[in-house]
Amino acid sequence: MSADLARRAGSRGTKRTARRGREKYNRREALAGYLFISPWIIGFVVFMLGAMAYSLVISFSRYNLATNVARPVGTANYALLFDDPKVALSLANTLFYAVMAVPLEICVALGLALLLNRVGRGAGFFRTVYYLPKMTPSVATASVFLLLLNGNTGAINQALGFFGIPGPQWLIDPAWVKPSIVLMTLWGVSGTMVIFLAALKSVPRDLYEVAALDGAGPVRKFFSITVPMISGAIFFNVIVLTIAALQVFDQAYLLFWRDQTNSSPESSLFYGIYLFQQAFREFNFGFASAMAWVLFVIILLISLLQVKIGNRYVYYEGDKS
After folding, report:
1. Do 41 and 82 reside in the same domain of the chain?
2. Hey, which of 63-67, 201-205, 299-303 has the most confident mean pLDDT?
3. CA nearest 111: which of 26, 189, 181?
4. What are the b/e assignments for 121-155, b being 16+ CB within 10 Å?
5. How far apart are CA 145 and CA 155, in angstroms?
6. What CATH number does residue 91 fall under?
7. Do 31 and 137 sit in the same domain of this protein?
8. 67, 189, 253, 285 — which has fewest CB within 10 A?
9. Angle of helix 231-246 relative to helix 190-201, nearest 10 degrees?
10. How many domains in the chain?
11. In sequence order, what DSSP letters do the residues of 128-155 get, joined into one string?
12. Is 9 in the same domain as 132?
């Protein structure tokens, strides 16, 4: 009896020692992980959270850049948002652009990923070629598209004219301003394409073989197997691209606003452009900070809505529902 008790006590002691060893190891691993990411954490706290907190204070103030003094004005800056017609115009332009650009980016990126996924020999070469536009600086891309989209001598209109189609004035006609910016945005869609390509590579080939035995065609396979299996990647890209579209700045600024004149069409005045003008041309930092926080809330609400809707349709591996 005493020997049995001794064995049990020894077993409990061994388990306790092993548990303590695992806890110590886990603490060391966690500490090492935090040390490795500490530069990012410090940068995020100082340059992101700190700047956001300061901009929130400024949004309730009238900030003077020369004296670096912020005079409290309460919610006056937010009230001005409803009185300035350009705020509503720029927000409407931005939302319209997002609705137009995001679905097109998803479709083009997914189409390119499907093509690359079928390439056998030379796949690495084609992936590199398709990704190169993403590496092109925005200024260089804008310079190229200024030539391509020229209404009189641009290559796009010349190509349309070859087929007897009269090309529009992309950079002048208000109806074609946003499509021209969307075209420039599609030039850098390869980043989204890479995510889709990785998702397609993870789809089990057995599913396609079983579907083929059941007589399913390419279209049925795509909508019944491919789309559900990569729905997580689609969901991720939709959220990321929506956030980027609501903050669109580079494309519109480089195509229409870099000369700092008032001759640019109003249909190219996006929320980010007007925010930039208020901050760095009018030096109205309080009003610009209020605009930034309103945009933050809008993006947050849209993202939460997308998450709520997406959770109903996104397939996660291991989900038994």
Report:
1. no
2. 299-303
3. 189
4. eeeeeebeebbeeeeeeeeebbeebbebbbeeebe
5. 10
6. 1.10.3720.10
7. no
8. 67
9. 170
10. 2
11. HHHHHHHHS-HHHHHHHHHHHT-TTT-H
12. no
Within-domain flag for 291: yes
Note whether 305 and 178 are same-domain residues: yes
Closest listed residue to residue 145, CA positions, set 265, 262, 251: 251
> Backbone phi, then psi, for 64, in 5-degree steps?
-105, 115
CA angle 282/83/243 to nearest 5° reads: 70
What pLDDT band is residue 10 in, cutting at 50, 70 and 90? low
Q: Residue 303 — very low, low, confident or very high, per pLDDT cuts 50/70/90?
A: very high
Task: Convert the pLDDT of each residue in 142-184 to its tens digit.
Answer: 888 888 888 888 889 898 888 888 888 888 888 899 999 999 9
204 and 290: one domain? yes
Residue 234 C-beta-side C-alpha neighbours within 13 Å = 21
| Residue 320 covered by a domain | no
- Cα 210 to chain center, whole Å? 36
State the average pLDDT over residues 175-204: 90
Q: Could you tell me the residue range of the domain that residue 271 belongs to? A: 77-313
Is there a single domain that holds both residue 185 and residue 296?
Answer: yes
Angle at alpha carbon of residue 32, lines to 30 and 34, rounded to 5°: 70
The answer to whether residues 105 and 189 touch, using CB atoms and an 8 Å cutoff, is yes
Q: Beta strands 69-72 and 61-64: pairing type?
A: antiparallel
CA pair distance 117, 309, nearest whole angstrom:
29
Cα end-to-end distance, the chain, whole Å:
52
User: Directed axis angle between helix 155-162 and helix 138-148, to 10°?
Assistant: 40
